[in-house]
Structure formats: C-alpha cells, structure tokens
Amino acid sequence: MAAVRTSSEIGINRVAIVAVLVVTVIFLAPIYWIASTAFKPRNLATTIPPTVVFQPEISPFVKLFTKRSQMRSPPSPEEYAAAPWWERVVFDGGEKIVRDGKGEVQWSGYPSRFLNSLIIAITSTVLAVGMGTFTAYGFSRFKVKGEADLLFFILSTRMLPPVVVAIPMFLMYRAVGLNDTHVGLIILYTAFNLSFSVWLMKGFMDEIPKEYEEAALVDGYTRMEAFFKIVLPEAATGIAATAVFCFITAWNEYAFALIMTNRRAQTAPPFIPSQVGSGLPDWTVIAAGTFLFLLPVAIFTFLLRNHLLRGMSFGAIRK
Amino acid sequence: MTQIELRGVQKFFGAVQVIKDLNLKISDNEFIVLLGQSGCGKTTTLRAVAGLETIDEGDILIDGKPVQHLKAADRDIAMVFQSFSLYPHMNVYENIAFPLRATRKSRSEIDQEVRSVAKTLQISDLLAKKPSALSGGDMQRVAIGRALVRRPKAMLMDEPIGALDAKLREEMRAEIKRLHIKQGSTTIYVTHDQIEAMSLADRIVIMHEGVLQQVGTPDEVYSRPANLFVAQFVGSPVMNVADAAVTEKASSASVTVGDAATGFEFPSALLSKLNGHAGGQLALGIRPEGVLIRRDAAEGFLPVETQIVEPLGSFDIVDLRVGSKMLRARTKSGFVSGPGEKVFARIDPSQAHFFDKASGKSLEVRL
After folding, report:
1. Structural domain that includes position B150
2. For the segment A143-188, what is each residue's pLDDT rounded down to a tens digit?
3. Is residue B235 part of a domain?
4. Would an 8 Å CB–CB cutoff place A209 in contact with chain B?
5. Are residues B322 and B186 in the same domain?
6. What is the pTM of this model?
7. Which ipTM value was assigned to this complex?
8. Best interface-test mutation with A: which of B85, B91, B139 has the largest number of A CBs within 10 A?
9. Chain A partners of B79 at a C-beta cutoff of 8 Å?
10. What's the CATH superfamily of A110-312?
11. Has residue B32 been placed in a domain?
12. Are strands B252-257 and B302-311 parallel, antiparallel or unpaired?
C-alpha cells in the first residue's frame, strides 16, 4: 500500500530540502572560492567586490610548479616569440621562469612537497589500518585479559591535543635523527591514527558473526587463512571507512609537519602557507596549490563512497 | 565408517559446569539428536566434537582415536550452523567449493564435486547466486551442500532449521531425513524441538543442565522416559504429572491423584511392582492419550468435570478437574462440548508411569 502523505508532511519535507541546500552552499562556498581563485588572473584575485565572471587562466598552475623571478623590463619580442605557451603566461604577469645554466626549467618546491604528502599519508594510513584491523580482530575474537582497560588505554592516547606533546616529540626526534624524515612523520601519523583505527575496526569486527570463521575452521582452514579469506572481505566496508578517515587526518595534518619537517620530508600543508611570505603574495598560486591539495582526498573518498555509505550506517540495521 | 565416542567429557565456562561427565557412543551411520532446552549443554557438546570448543576433562574419540587436542580443521568433520554461515561475499558455487579448496584437489575435480552435490540437493540453478539472494530453505540446502561436498567423517548440525518458518521447517526436516538415508553418514544433530528429534533421530540424547538424562530410540524415550524431566520434556501435549498415593483394595489397587476423594483403579500387580514405594513419595505420569473418557458411567471410571477445552483440529485437549488437580486428556475433536460438562474418566494402567518424587527417576513399572 502506498503511503499517503499529508500536506504538512510535504511542507516539512520542502523546508528540509531548503535547509539542506543552504547548508550545502555554506559548506561549498570556500571550496568554490579556492577553485575559482586558482584559475583567476592575478589582478582579479583580490578585487572588491569579488570577480565572479572571468576568463579562466592556467597561469597560476604554471607558476605553482616553477621557480620564477620578477622582471625589471618586459621580455624582448624575440624572447617572447621563442618562449613556449606556458612561459608566455608567466611573462604576461611580469615574471620569468628561472632556468639553470643548461637552460633547464627550475621546479618550485611544490611537486616534491605534494609527493611527500602522498608518500607519508598513504604509508601511515596503510600501517594504521593494517595494525588496527589485526588488533581489533584480536580484541573482538579472543578473551584478552583486561580487555576493557587495554581498549581504554588505547583510546586515551587520543585524549590530549597532539600539539601538547609537540616539544618533547621534537626533542626526541632530534635526538634519534628522525627530524625532517619521511619515516618520522609516518611513525607519528600512524601512532595518532592507530587508536582511532582500532576502535573503529573493533566495532566492525564485532558485527561480523564469528560463525563465518568457525565454518571456515571446520571446513579445513587455519585461523589465519580464515582471517584473510573470510574476515577481511567481510570487513572491507569498515576498512574503507577507517582508511578514509585515517588518510584525511594524515593528509591534512599541519602542526607536526610544520615543527618536525622543513625541507626533505616537508608535506604540502606547511609548504603552501609558507609561500605567502615570499614577496608580494600571489593568491592565485596559493589557491592553485590548495586546489590540487584538495583533490586526492576528494578522489579517494569518491572511489570508496559506496563502502563509506554502508560503513556509516553499519550496525544500524538488524540482520 | 565413523564412530564417535565421548568419554567422561567435562566442560566449564568459568565456574559454571556446562557438560557434566558425558559418556556417549555413536555408531557408524547413526543419526543422533541431542535434545534439550537452551543452555543444557547440547550445543557446547556439538562444538566440542567439532573442535570449536576445548574440553576440560575426558576424551573425544573419532574412530577410536582421541581428537580433543586436534584443531577443527584436522578432524575431518563438517558442520551446519543455525545461521547457515554462508560466506556473503562468495556465490553459492564458491561457498560449496570453499571446503574443497582447502584440500589439494584440482580445479576440475572440485567443479565436478560441487556440481554433483548441487544436483543431489537440487540447487544447480542457484550456483551463480549470492547467499543474500536465496530463500531460507535454499540457504539451508547450500549450507548442507557445503558440509556434504567434502564427504566428511561426520556431519554436525546445530539447529539447522531452527531459523526457518514452520512450514519450511517441516519440508526441510523431511529433506534432511531423505538425505541421510541416501548419503548415510554419522550425524549429530542439535535441537530443542522434540518433534524434530522424534522424526529424525535413530537415537535421541536428552540433556538437562549439562547432564545426560536418557539415550534411546524415539519410541523408548517417549514410552519409557527414564525420569520426570524426560517424561515432561518429550511429547506434546505434555505428560500429566501428579503426586499419587497407592492403596490396596480387595482385588485391585487404587491410585489417588493429589487430594482427590477417590482413586483410579489399577491392577493389584502394581503394588508388588512398586516394591515398597507405594507409601513413599510417588509421582504418577500419564500422557493425555492415556486418560480415557466416556460420557456414561462404567466400571472403573470416575466422575469428573471438564474445565477447559482446546480444539487442536485433529483432536481436542480437555482439562479435567480431579480434586484440586487438573488432568489433561486427549479426545476426539468435538467429543466434549465445552467447560463444565460431567464426564467419566479413568487412567489406562498400561500407559501409566510411576516416578520416585525425590530422585525423579522412573520406577520402571510396566502394567
């Protein structure tokens, strides 16, 4: 039988839709601002009132990836004509791309910072989720002495703001030579995410009926085989949800990256704002860097969206 | 050829003893049903045989070899779970093939065996489906298929049809029985449903609070219950049990139920068979079909009044007031028109059971 909806229900429904739209606009506005600024000519980036309609440009991205210097006088017509298109857009802004003695283009610091971010975030996510999954399985399936205390202890590592331990961590890292290393940040982010990962995965593991493994044990498999062949595929949703959260945390982390790294292992978050300080800030370049930085999380989340939706509502439905 | 033997098995969960000194011999091809209420230790016993539960004392022998220290995987036993436990991420084919993939069988061998089992269970057209797309009965068939495919030494079933609805349960019960007759493997089946137990079992093992109460064929358990627990647990409607006093009369014995004024007539042989228990604490057990009623007075019938009539279709259950006690009788449907009717009842001595009230044990009186 089709449900009959009263006019008041329809009214409430419309109000809800409007409310959702308003909230969506509020949340998306800054992202639109960054994305549009990333494609604006430099002189339109800071106009008041803001420029909404403009001819999009690629120059901020060219500038983001290259080292540039200010030109005192415009380039000669020959020089301009000989330059490739991406160099001309830089000339148009009154700057030129720095080249080394052999004429090779000098890259800016951004690509390597971006790569650092990827390496550190992905590795720490894999480690945190991997260890978290095993730990959660152990807690979920076996009688562990003092289980409640241990789980509380694991959770308690999240109870103080991480920045509180920044100074001691910095001193310790300096003493053992982990400052400004990939391994250093990977360890740090894994440690931060681990407690979260254990707790979240414990919830998912508890939801998987242990009869599945018992069936596999009776069917002639060892517990390890049962774990990999039965439990892991069943936990895929939980693993995906946990991985997204861990990745976002590691990817966006700013404070420790700022303190612990300065060059070799520096990630994108502390690098992007550091560019504000070098000369007159070119907001379009900063916006381009931020825009690119947003993409991996968006893509990762988009790819796992089906798992995530199920992950969010996991346990809410009776089986 | 698989025999299973449990010798002095004990199992504790913390301070609670869930299996108390269990001894049981199961012979080849036998269909054994462990019957009891929830928490009686039947599932724990089954899981101990499967290797999913350790035991604290005693031996579990399969074909004479102790296996209690072997892992579940090494016992060559298959199990069907109440929840079916079909792996949700695999389709039916992969589910059935899963136990074979643990062995060193070739792809073509596995394929052949999966298809042959599917054919036996008439699920060949379901092989490509995911478990979530199956009905309860089909899920159960797949679960049985997964257990059968490996040709295990023994099959263990933990309330395999408990999750199905009543009609399907009846169908699957018949199917399991048919399958057992056809395939013939030593089977241990756990249930709390006595009808399932009666219809499937070669022998029923009745457990209560971790203690084995009686082992016997369905007929033995029904018509010769070893104690009060078995008497009241097996059979539906439940056996009448009442305090009874036996007195000697001229040429017969009289059995008074509860505080009734007059007693039911029994052959005088009862007194000698009770062997001195007559004056002691005695309980009479009589199934509703052993309480005979008629409309007019007759030799040996006592006048009683009907209290409640429960029409059950093929027969009625009528509550009769005898003193302050109720006796339930089974009659033809419509025999008694309603409550408050005066009828005449007697107890069929050949169907009466006498129990020692203190120990609950049957006094093995057969008249």
Report:
1. 4-229
2. 889 989 999 999 888 888 888 888 999 999 999 999 899 999 999 9
3. no
4. yes
5. no
6. 0.78
7. 0.81
8. B85
9. 214-215, 218
10. MetI-like (1.10.3720.10)
11. yes
12. unpaired
